[in-house]
Amino acid sequence: MSGGIPVEDSCIEAFHELKSKRHVNTVIYRLSDNLETVILDFKGNLTHDELLQALPAAETRFVVYDLVFATADGARKEKTVLISWCPEAAEVEQRNAHSTSRNPLRDLLDGVQVYVQATDLSDLEYEELVSRTS
What we know:
Number of domains: 1
Structural class: alpha+beta
Number of strands: 5
Radius of gyration: 14 Å
Order of helices and strands: HEEHEEHEH
CATH architecture: 3-Layer(aba) Sandwich
Distance between the termini: 32 Å
Oligomer: single chain
């Protein structure tokens, strides 16, 4: 993939598992230690609070999360959210590599309905995510 950091196949496979609703609501990706590849970090089920706790304070991550919420009229909705987690405490090299990999990863994750860039946990509060779905 020219112009971007390569994404491991396992990342795409985990995304497809989430999309097919096979008991997975969260996929977390990170950069490899040498910052040259996007790799799978976690695949499973997390509550919203557990997701916030899983995000490191000084490292970047990408998260695909199946956000479930109720509309004003009480209807149940689900949206697939891609979160670009780039805290200000992350090292400059990691933030730059994260930025370089963001668009290529977005292009590979067909079916993401909402994209959120976050630098602070307040950007990812449940109500904040729900407000971005409309």
